[in-house]
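Let us work through a complete example step by step.
Step 1: write down the sequence.
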Amino acid sequence: NTYSIPDSPGIRAPGKRTSDTFSERMGSACANPWTESGVTYGLLVIEIPLLAEASGFVGMADEVISVEADEELRLARAIKRGMDPQDAKNRLARQATDEQRRKIANVVIDNNGSLEALEQQVESWYTDRVNEHMFFSADS
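Step 2: predict the structure and record it as tokens.
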């Protein structure tokens, strides 16, 4: 099952920053999958692209994973997806550095290779956690 947080960019209460509104939605949404389903154990993955910049959520996680790629590759991928090159450079410049992300991460996954290589790393991480009984797989 997946649970999505409603996306409403640019919508915020008067006098609040967009990041404040996002934080409120995120905090509320994190509890909903567990309280709505009655699940007492399992795996909940929350993708927060700017976690290092909004680090207040770090304490909510048992583990933080940073998926990293070289800056040149991130830039090339953004441009390939249709982003204006200067906009992509500006966005990268405003983001946390790899070093800042590593400081809050328990695990770093390398995304410089193929999709298959990335999937192998994620599968390995997942298998390790199931073996450590950190959470239970659907087959348990």
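Step 3: interpret the result. Helices lie at 18-37, 71-80, 85-94, 98-104, 115-131.
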